[in-house]
Structures are given as C-alpha cells and as structure tokens.
Design a protein that fits this description.
The structure holds two protein chains of two kinds.
Chain A (H helix, E strand, L loop, with lengths): L3 E3 L3 E4 L5 E3 L1 E3 L5 E8 L3 E8 L6 E2 L6 E7 L2 E6 L8 E8 L7 E2 L3 E5 L1
Parallel strand pairs in A: 2-12
Antiparallel strand pairs in A: 1-4, 3-9, 5-6, 5-10, 6-7, 8-9, 10-11, 10-12
Chain B lengths: L3 E3 L4 E4 L4 E7 L7 E6 L6 E6 L3 E5 L2 E6 L4 E6 L8 E8 L6 E3 L3 E6 L1
Parallel strand pairs in B: 2-11
Antiparallel strand pairs in B: 1-3, 3-8, 4-5, 4-9, 6-7, 7-8, 9-10, 9-11
The chains are: A mainly beta, B mainly beta.
Chain lengths: 112, 111
C-alpha cells in the first residue's frame, strides 16, 4: 500500500524553537506539498516541490522554509516557532495535475 | 472572493437518503477537480476525481462538473452513518499542479 509518512503525530514546542517536520513518501512521486489546516480556514498551501532541490512558495510561506534533498523526503522547517503556527500540518504527494493527493496522517503541532 | 467555496454545513440527512454536496470555484482555467473525505482527527482521503463536464459515477458516489457555471458537486446515494465526515472540494490552480481546497462541508447521516 502506498504511503506518505509524517514523522510525528503530535508535537509540543516552545516559542522560538526551530522545528523540523519530516515527510517521506514511497510512491516515487515527483511532487510534494505542505499544507496547514485550521478550523474555518481549510487547507492552506505553505510550500511545494516539483523535484529534488526545487521548491516553490505557496500562499502562506512566511515563517517557514523547506528542504528536499532526496526525492522521497520533504521537510518543513519552522525557523522560530510562534504560537500562531499552532496547527495541523499535512504533507501530500502526487504525480501530476490529473492525480489527486495522497496525504500523510498529519502532525498536530502546538507551540506554547 | 475565495478560490473554492463550500457551504460549511452541517448537512444532515437520514440514513438511506441522497446527500448532495456543492462547491464553486473562481478560476476558469481549472482542469482537475477532486473530492476528499476527512473524518474527525484524520487526514483527507481521495474519493473522486473529475475532469470533464458531466457526471462520473463510482459506486454510491457521483461527481458532477459544470465548467460554464464553475460548479462541482458530489452526490452520495444510500447514505450511511459511516459517511458522516467533512467533505473537501479541491480544484487545481492556473493549470498548475497546485490545488486550492474549500473549507469543507460537514455531513451528518442520522441512523
């Protein structure tokens, strides 16, 4: 069964910490995405990547960066965590415009 | 105006009824449309995709697309309590492999 695996299901971090969220897919997909999901706001795209070492800003990239050193792995980095980054973070991958996403199980991040 | 709009609900239907979920989008260049189901506390899972005007059926699910009206819908026939979830509409943006999601419609199917 194809999978997108996010390294942590729940995380609690302190304000100002540097936070790494890891995502690994085993489907050989070219495209990977990071979204955050908040009540009433839906899913909002943070960053995405079409290839190794390539990255594109989504709609809300401020305060975040990403790394894609290998095709199967896409990391989201919160440079200095703030309380307004408390959210559910979802990683997804696909292989093209006409293919839906496969999502990871999500990481619920709380910044205190 | 949001790129993808859905009625947040909740939409309540009795078991066995047809549930109708609707979605409108703003980008006339969009070419691919998806419906996802999300159970509380879980991540979204893909249930339907549609690319051409008209209807597409898969089991109890039917997706309908009207590009002229910029409207996508999902019909769930013979609704079951296990269908109770939030349904997300996703639309690609500017012919790119990037998708906007609606905020979701919460469906409650009552036994």
């Amino acid at each position: 069964d194809v999978k997108v695996t996010q390294s942590s299901r729940y995380l609690v971090k302190r304000t100002g910490e540097k936070v790494f969220l890891e995502c690994v897919q085993d489907m050989d997909h070219e495209n990977m995405f990071w979204y955050r999901q908040d009540p009433g706001l839906g899913l909002r795209l943070i960053y995405f990547s079409y290839d190794v070492k390539m990255k594109e800003k989504g709609d809300i990239p401020e305060g975040y960066s990403v790394s894609r050193e290998k095709k199967e792995r896409f990391s989201l980095i919160l440079e200095s965590a703030s309380t307004n980054q408390t959210s559910m973070y979802l990683c997804a991958s696909n292989t093209g415009t006409y293919y839906g996403y496969t999502f990871g199980s999500g990481t619920r991040l709380t910044v205190v | 105006q949001k790129e993808v709009e859905q009625n947040s609900g909740p939409l309540s239907v009795p078991e066995g009824a047809i549930a109708s979920l609707n979605c409108t989008y703003s980008d006339r260049g969009s070419q691919s449309f998806f419906w996802y189901r999300q159970y509380s506390g879980k991540s979204p899972e893909l249930i339907m995709s549609i690319y051409s005007n008209g209807d597409k059926e898969d089991g109890r699910f039917t997706a309908q697309l009207n590009k002229a009206s910029q409207y996508v819908s999902l019909l769930i026939r013979d609704s079951q309590p296990s269908d109770s979830a939030t349904y997300l509409c996703a639309v690609n943006v500017n012919n790119f492999n990037k998708f906007y999601f609606g905020s979701g419609t919460k469906l409650n199917v009552k036994p």
